[in-house]
Amino acid sequence: MAKTRFITGERRDIFLYSTRVENLFINEFLPDAPGDCVKVFLFGLMYAQFNQEIDSRTMALTLGMTEKDVDNAWKYWEARGLVSYIRGADEGSTEIRFIRQIEQFYGKSYEEPAGEPETEEAGADESAEEIIERITNQHLRAIFHKYQDLTGRTISRVEAGKLTDAIKEYNIEPDVLDFAIDYCAGIDKYSVDYIFKVALRWTEDGARDVSTVKQMLDRRSKRNDAYRKVFSELGFSRLPNPSDREIMDRWFDVLGCSLADVLNACKAAGGMREPNLRYVNKVIENRILEKGGVNTRTAEKARNAAQDAPVTQPAAPEEMAKVSRKVLRDYYEYIRNEEDAAHRNRVAEVTAALPSMNDIFTAEARLNSAVITMKPGPDAKEKRQQLKIRRQELEESKKELLTSSGYPEDYLERKYRCSICRDTGYTDEGRVCTCAKERAEEAYKWIQKRNQ
């Protein structure tokens, strides 16, 4: 059976067909364009879509314009990036190439060839950069469509450019930007600038995926609720400013207070004529110090972890720990008592192992008694000198006996953590010793363990 070949007729008259105009052109450029420029653009687009040629004189006559008007119209569209106006080497020869605006927004891979759906092997020959670019463009298309669905209008070129820059220039993850659009729409904020700032702030705070963003928002929501309850307890009708939030954040993140602790402290300011956060802050600090203090170095790490913030510089030594004066005083007494007990144990150990050490101790006791009972007189100075020499001899005998028996020569001496104040906290001049800062951190750990 013979086969029949079907052939369509050639398109001889372009005026019998339709010209496709991008909606982006209608939405973005049509409203502000001069009428003559629009006429030239559409007339030229019709010829371009069917690869037809027409000289500027014919176009001008058809549109009722001058050739200069036509040439100015093409320059207008070239300046706006819609056409490429190429002048040929031959006199009067030009080429007008239309630039598809959809490619400017979505990339050149926006429309797949008809009958060739995208498959897993579509990017087999692509470079890594091309694959990333294609995937990024796919994400952008989805984001543009979402924005248009939520706003009910076509996205503008400027808006699309800002969303594109958010991903390509500011490295905001597409999922985070997509979630930012939903989040902002939920609070009736549809400005692309607002959406961009929200997504950028999340990214700068370390949220690189939607899950982390949601966790961060949940923490902030709970914290904002705490702010509201504190202000309500104090009778404030205003919103907290940055300084207020900094003070309250310190209560929760550095001092480790619960909301109940803070609200209880707020009640102490209830009788004030003009209650304020600084008064509440003093109440909280005093209560914490009474309970044993706070180790601000440990609390600083906890705060950073709670806020997903980078670890800050270590606190200065004077900020390592804070305890009340009573706690510090009790701790100094505690370490002195510990050394007293340790010294007695060392003496008992040595006298048990070295009986001759008792004779030295007995001689030292008699020497001390002689010093105390010595009466003033012309020969008192000489006697004191003799007693001093005798004391030195006993000390040497003691050291010789210890070292010969395998003990350190200072084994029977009292040990002090600080040789300046001898673990009293005060120098001979009555000033607070420099060891107080170090002892404060030890005191904090000591009181916390004792209170358990």
What is the structure about, briefly put?
With 452 residues, this protein is mostly helical. It has helices spanning 23-29, 35-49, 56-63, 67-79, 101-106, 128-151, 157-168, 174-186, 192-204, 210-234, 242-254, 259-268, 277-291, 296-306, 325-353, 356-373, 380-404, 436-451, and strands spanning 83-87, 94-98. It starts with 22 loop residues before the first helix and ends with a helix.
Description:
The chain has 452 residues and is mostly helical. It is 60% helix and 2% strand. It has 18 helices and 2 strands. It has helices at 23-29, 35-49, 56-63, 67-79, 101-106, 128-151, 157-168, 174-186, 192-204, 210-234, 242-254, 259-268, 277-291, 296-306, 325-353, 356-373, 380-404, 436-451, and strands spanning 83-87, 94-98. It has a two-stranded antiparallel ribbon. Strand 1 and strand 2 (94-98) form a beta hairpin. Helix 3 (56-63) packs across helix 4. The protein is elongated, with a radius of gyration of 44 Å. The model is unreliable at 1-9, 109-123 and 296-319 (pLDDT under 50).
CA-to-CA gap between the ends?
Answer: 102 Å
Low-confidence region ranges: 1-9, 109-123, 296-319
Q: Structural class of the helices, strands and pairings? A: mainly alpha
| Biggest sheet record | 2 strands, antiparallel
Strand order, main sheet: write it out: 1-2
What is the residue-averaged pLDDT? 80
How many DSSP E strands? 2
β-strand percent reads: under 5%
Gyration radius, to the nearest Å? 44 Å
Q: What is the N-to-C order of secondary-structure elements (H for helix, E for strand)?
A: HHHHEEHHHHHHHHHHHHHH
- What helical percentage do the residues reach? 55-70%
Report the principal-axis shape. elongated
How many helices? The count is: 18
